């Protein structure tokens, strides 16, 4: 088929460098291809907007063109606005102007008499989704990688080109609230069911189907959209969205739920609610006016800057091999051995299967093997239930998992990962047994959370192959992997561990060996200080609430119940032995262990669980105070800031010690490890960004004040003292 080629913009030097290309087919359909030269993905920039407008003008003015189809020359459609561009904006007025210009361009598409159809394959996120929504119809490929979403809230922003309102137009306010406030992605089939997508077609014929839809629209044939049905969801939508009283209730409940979750730390969520409520009450234009203004305010906000910092840090880590030598390339093995079928072992096995790796799971007996297989199968079945996998795909993944109670089948494993009990003698025995049945270059990785990898490697005949791979529970949900290298670990082994972690979908940081590595070590003083506060009579719920209000996902007491009081009691002496008086705990842990309180796992902890909860959502077990021998304070309330600072500054101070001692490679890794592994509040940017924001001198002043009150455990990190003197920053 011959076509007529037009250039959206004419650049005498190199017209081939255009982002937007146009081909007019003999049937009068213009195919507009978005393909940013030299980039792996299409992102919205000012140049992109200029060229798109020029293409729109050409199409609308060309009498031979009856309709247009937008498609992408990349593996994805458009993945959103260019974050570098947004980060460079310093004035709210400039961001507001950018929002207005983008929205006007998209509104011109929607208002065009010639229909525009978006042919979407791959990701259409943020501004890319807004562009597709501005078209008269969306045809999506049925590929699993085709996703729609408005993730701006994850960067502290809201969609700035009328995307929220267009979702509400097509699918209703509740869907717009859900997509806007969560930032989650939606697959093509679900998007069609919601009314966000008009057609779903195989990727091989996506363009042809989009052209067909464009022709039908040009001929005046109406597109069938999901109509109103007298069923529960539609009647609920009618009651909540189509009348003022219902909308008021909808938004009141949404605000209550949002504030409970964000504690007011993420202003973008409030602005999303404001814009959609304005849309419901006063219409599209009034909401668009508000949207542009608040978009400008959010772009230059401190919260957006910190969340953008995290985005750039994780992007950089994706390209980081974990070693300094660019010639060293990690290798992902085709098969791994997994020792231990518990929650950690089963979780690691699952993410490895999901990475396309064959797994040989070993446990000491059939019962252990059964638990491990059942755990993996349970995760896969849940994905089938959520329609993330087909039954056939589940069975194919599960078929890659085999099990044994001996060491058979491990000879060809490239990496063997152990996740057995935290006992050095046990790990030594297992390491020797593994080396006896594997190849010379097989990597032995320990999932220990506290024992130095160097101590484990003392039992090895080939210590250069021993590395730490510290996963976080639950493995299939927690995003961080902490890779630990000893002085003997070879760069190739480190790079291979990192490569496997990335293939498993993890954000990977590499740290140097030491007791507790980075994450366990910085968490210990935080938890220790919480124990001291409890011993001083601070009520359990008061302490947990204060730290959640500061931005932690759960309070330290809740976390202790979840991790396991017995686990903490086991790790505590290891830390004390390594770091001395600074890690001296109060005697609360020993009393809890003596009372057989392990936390949620045996339904005996600080909170009530199971039958003891008697239907209560969450309540403190009052008998724990008797066990601890303390009387909770019921008089004057304890200042929340005191509780927040005493726990969080211990965390920050120890992070600085880790960097000063060379445990961390960079402050970036320290921030990512704290946020992704331990839940340090993302809007604060991590412990190192937090020091930069508050100022090293002020952090030192507060820490020194606690040192004067409480002694050795509050000794300021030498690096903090040095930076305060110099007025230095980490970034």
TrEMBL record:
It catalyses: a (3S)-3-hydroxyacyl-CoA + NAD(+) = a 3-oxoacyl-CoA + NADH + H(+). This is enoyl-CoA hydratase. GO terms for molecular function: (3S)-3-hydroxyacyl-CoA dehydrogenase (NAD+) activity; 3-hydroxybutyryl-CoA epimerase activity; enoyl-CoA hydratase activity. Keywords: Fatty acid metabolism, Isomerase, Lipid degradation, Lipid metabolism, Lyase, Multifunctional enzyme, NAD, Oxidoreductase. It comes from the Bacteria. It comes from Pendulispora rubella. InterPro entries: 3-OHacyl-CoA_DH_NAD-bd, 3HC_DH_C, 6-PGluconate_DH-like_C_sf, ClpP/crotonase-like_dom_sf, Enoyl-CoA_hyd/isom_CS, Enoyl-CoA_hydra/iso, FA_oxidation_alpha_subunit, NAD(P)-bd_dom_sf. In the central section; belongs to the 3-hydroxyacyl-CoA dehydrogenase family. Belongs to the enoyl-CoA hydratase/isomerase family. PANTHER family: TRIFUNCTIONAL ENZYME SUBUNIT ALPHA, TRIFUNCTIONAL ENZYME SUBUNIT ALPHA, MITOCHONDRIAL. Residues 516-609 form the 3-hydroxyacyl-CoA dehydrogenase C-terminal domain. Coiled coil: none annotated. Its EC number is 4.2.1.17. It holds the Pfam family 3HCDH_N. Pathway: Lipid metabolism; fatty acid beta-oxidation. The lineage of its organism: Bacteria, Pseudomonadati, Myxococcota, Myxococcia, Myxococcales. Residues 335-513 form the 3-hydroxyacyl-CoA dehydrogenase NAD binding domain.
